[in-house]
Amino acid sequence: MQSITLSECFRGAWRDTGRALQKMPLLILVIFVLLLAAECFRDRLQISSQLSAESSSKVVFGLFSFGIAILSAIVASILSVKVIRYSLFGDTPPNGDGALRRYLLLLLITTVGFIVFLLAAVAVIVGLIFAMKRGGFAHGSTRQMLTISALIYALAICAGIFVCGRLSLLFPHAAAGGKLLWRHAWQDTRGHFWVVIATFFLTTLPIMIVSGSLGFLRLYAVTHFDASGLTYDIAAFLSSAATVLSVVTAGACSAWVYRRFARELHLSAA
Fold first, then answer.
1. Helical ranges in the chain per DSSP H
2. How many Cβ atoms from other residues are within 10 Å of residue 51's Cβ?
3. Which residues, including other chains, have CB under 8 Å from residue 227's CB and lie 6 or more apart?
4. Is residue 254 exposed (0-12), middle (13-18) or buried (19+ Cβ within 10 Å)?
5. In which band, very low, low, confident or very high, does the pLDDT at 130 lie, cut at 50, 70 and 90?
């Protein structure tokens, strides 16, 4: 745990982002090409499923989209691990055997856990609706049910974000080659949740604005332009570039947050 201010985290993360782009151009180019190919392939599947009247084509599109999302996550994780290790150790990182495997395992566990939170909220909402209907309360009270359902779902999302924020130090720790020490990560972020969230938010805010704008342009292009043109490919190109930059920036930011708050995790690795 080092004495680092929020401003130093912000400047250090963006400085390491620029250095990583300079130090590993080949890897970043390969990752970009893979993400771009996945985006273009998904767009072509979406176009064909929209033009087809068969419901099976939409099922195929959904399955392929799920597979593409998994592959994209793996590819992005490779880049994230490389950036985190570079930001933490510079040009001479220590042996990182198993770092990517533990990082992917952590990503899988946290993603599944977040989905479970949401599914549990849906189950509570459905159960509540049935209970209200059986009790006769639901008659003429659709607005109340919608309000309660939205509140429960929002609380589940907030709970998932809180848990992920408290465990966020595990990602750079795993990338550095450390073990998945859940209790240590939870202890290191005790009382620092809002600072951790604020650091990630402020550091990645410029990228989120750019990515959000590109996402809007992509949606506009998909809904307003001819599917046979180059519009989709251009949108996929910009989207993939924003994704790569987001991964690099988030990786560098997580390394600086790890420097600032990881105490128990550092002691366990000593």
1. 6-23, 25-51, 55-89, 99-134, 142-166, 170-175, 182-188, 193-224, 231-261, 264-269
2. 9
3. 47, 50, 51
4. buried
5. confident
SS3 (DSSP) at 96: coil
Nearest to 211 by CA among 230, 232, 182, 238: 238
Lowest mean pLDDT among 26-35, 67-76, 120-129: 120-129
What are the angstrom distances between the C-alpha of 165 and each of 81, 149, 228?
18, 24, 43
Q: Is 84 exposed, middle or buried (0-12, 13-18, 19+ CB in 10 A)?
A: buried
18 vs 13: CA distance, rounded Å: 9
pTM, entire model: 0.84
DSSP conformational letter for 27: H
pLDDT digits (tens, 9 = 90+) for 31-72: 999 988 888 887 777 766 665 656 666 677 777 878 888 888
142-166 vs 193-224: helix crossing angle, rounded to 10? 120
Whether the pLDDT of residue 92 is over 70: the answer is: yes
CA distance 224 to 155: 36
Compute the average pLDDT of residues 223-229. 59
Residue 223 pLDDT greater than 90, yes or no:
no
